[in-house]
Amino acid sequence: MTRRRGAHLMAVTALIALLATGCGSTVARPAPTSDPSGPRTTYVAVGGSDAIGSGTDDPLLDAWPQQFFRHSLPLTAVFVNAAEPGATVAEAITDQAPLATSSRATVVTVWLVSTDLLAGTPASTYGNELLRLLTTLRGHGATTVLVGNVPPLAQLPGYPACRSGAARLGRGQPCPATLPAPAVLAASSVAYNQAIAADAARSGAILVDLQRGVATAVTDGGPPILDPTGADLSTAGSTLVAQAFSGALPARSGHTA
After folding, report:
1. Residue 13: Cβ-neighbour burial (10 angstroms; 0-12, 13-18, 19+)
2. pLDDT tens across 107-147, in order?
3. Which domains are assigned to the chain?
4. pTM of the full predicted structure?
């Protein structure tokens, strides 16, 4: 009877751990058979709807931070998804950065461009807020922070949906009441990318060039990067973003890029 109770308890514990992989959750991988070397990696994703997997076939598995976590970090790594649908950089400073800090993150990914860009947030304001976010996440320099830039507008999550007249984009977030004209958005995306590059250099974060990576993938004729609505990344798009972040991850202490 004792053995049966023990086996039942182990099964229930395993099921609970499997279910705890959603937004805002902490996921620890099974320990390897040999003793790990170096400190444990704690990974925190800071972002919006794309980081939760909206638009993918299976958000719990296909969201790009999940793919990055599974394929690029050690078996002993812990994953904390701090992302919130429709988040702006300003909101991430108050709502997501504290979770990264309290989790003692050693690796943080940041991709927050769509909401600010589509809402018409000036590049100067966006740049100032992003620098504050990156600086906070970097702390005293012990945390590896990777930050993505703006992909080509046609592949920007939310833009095709809002431009076509849809009322809402990823995870039910409303489109801006007034969407900037394409020429204005194109100019803003250039200014945003300049600000992101400058902020990465100033804070010591690592720039992930999605502008170039996504453009190359589109030119090569790969699978659609956005879902059919144009509101979110598709599974293929999430894989592309995950690979871009993985390629930028330094191959050093505790990382397996």
Report:
1. exposed
2. 999 999 999 999 999 999 999 999 999 999 999 898 999 99
3. 40-248 (3.40.50.1110)
4. 0.83
